[in-house]
Amino acid sequence: MQDVRVRHYLNRARDFFRGMDLLKGDPTDYRYSSALLGIHSAISYCDALRTGMGSESVSSDDHKKAVDELRAMLSARRFERVQGTDHLERLMHFKGRVAYASDGSGVDFKNIVQKAERFAAWAEDAGKALRIEGWRHD
């Protein structure tokens, strides 16, 4: 049953990622959309990884807690390639500003998309390396 939940979050992550990728070509018209899709892709990848490693509480609004839990779970498995969690932490820092700020001042949309791309690549590799049940390419 865990593999079904992993696939659910993984499919969602990849869907958000593809949406971000489609919109990132025009940074002026769709910058909020592409950035927010990238952030939500990262959240779903995080949920897939945590679920695959045994977490029962992935529907949290406290994304800082999710990043900390992911790091702890990776550490418990002695997974040393944790640099992706730094990208995730930065993305969570910008989530509120991208989603709710009245203007985009101080938000580097291109950097957010780049961090989302880096996190997605890391998460894909981590899921495979950790041999998470349900982690597969569609």
Major pleated sheet: none
CATH fold title = Four Helix Bundle (Hemerythrin (Met), subunit A)
Strand fraction band?
A: under 5%
**What integer value in Å does the Rg equal?**
14 Å
Structural class by helix and strand composition: mainly alpha
Distance between the termini: 19 Å
**Inertia-based shape:** globular
Q: What do the pLDDT scores average to? A: 88
CATH level 1 name: Mainly Alpha
- CATH architecture, by name, is Up-down Bundle
Return the string of H and E elements. HHHHH
**What is the number of helices?**
5
Helix content: 55-70%
| Count of separate structural domains | 1
Quaternary structure classification: single chain
DSSP E strands, number? 0
Task: Give short descriptive properties of this protein.
mainly alpha, 138 residues, Four Helix Bundle (Hemerythrin (Met), subunit A), 5 helices
Structure description:
- This protein is mostly helical and 138 residues long.
- It has a single domain (2-129), classed as Four Helix Bundle (Hemerythrin (Met), subunit A) (Up-down Bundle), CATH 1.20.120.
- 70% of the residues lie in helices and 0% in strands.
- The chain is built from five helices and no strands.
- Helix 3 runs antiparallel to helix 4 and helix 4 (84-100) crosses helix 5 (109-129).
- The protein is globular and about 40 Å long.
